[in-house]
Amino acid sequence: MLLFAADPTSKPPSVNGSWELDTGYLGVTLALKGDTFEYWFYSDVISDDEPKYPIRGKVLYRSNSIVLVPPEGQKVYSTTWRLVVDDGEICLLADHDLPDHRPPRSPSGRLLHKVADDVSPSPTKQSPTGK
């Protein structure tokens, strides 16, 4: 896995669209369009205080990463996502899942993969791709 290197003032390449992580135990869907995002999360842990999805907010671009700015009081899995290259594919990896922030193991199981170049205007289920 490689971190994506870019000019510090440039916008990351090809980030608009739908990105997903599905481990079977938890899932994250992130829909990016320009300077906005929509976010969904699921887990096998059920809570009485589940937020109403999608969570919508602003996106800031910082060279090889994107920063999500959710509304006050709303939580997302990670606010900072790094663009990484894994087996030739550009993916997103939560900043706190970077190898130097976790015990030695591959972070491949925590990558968001791009599943669509566009974003559905109104998802039918949990995510823009209908999962």
Features:
131 residues; mainly beta; 8-stranded antiparallel beta barrel; globular; disordered C terminus
Instruction: State the secondary-structure class.
Output: mainly beta
Identify the quaternary structure here.
Answer: single chain
- Poorly predicted runs are 121-131
Strand tally: 9
Folded structure, characterized:
By secondary structure, the chain is mostly beta strands. It is built from no helices and nine strands. The protein has strands at residues 2-3, 17-22, 26-33, 36-43, 55-62, 65-69, 80-86, 89-94, 111-116. It has an eight-stranded antiparallel barrel. A hairpin with a 2-residue loop joins strand 3 and strand 4. The radius of gyration is 14 Å and the shape is globular. Mean pLDDT is 79; it is low at 121-131.
Outline of the structure:
With 131 residues, the protein is mainly beta. The chain has strands spanning 2-3, 17-22, 26-33, 36-43, 55-62, 65-69, 80-86, 89-94, 111-116.
How do the strands and helices of this protein lay out in sequence?
Blueprint: E1 2-3, E2 17-22, E3 26-33, E4 36-43, E5 55-62, E6 65-69, E7 80-86, E8 89-94, E9 111-116
Antiparallel strand pairs: 1-7, 2-3, 2-9, 3-4, 4-5, 5-6, 6-7, 7-8, 8-9
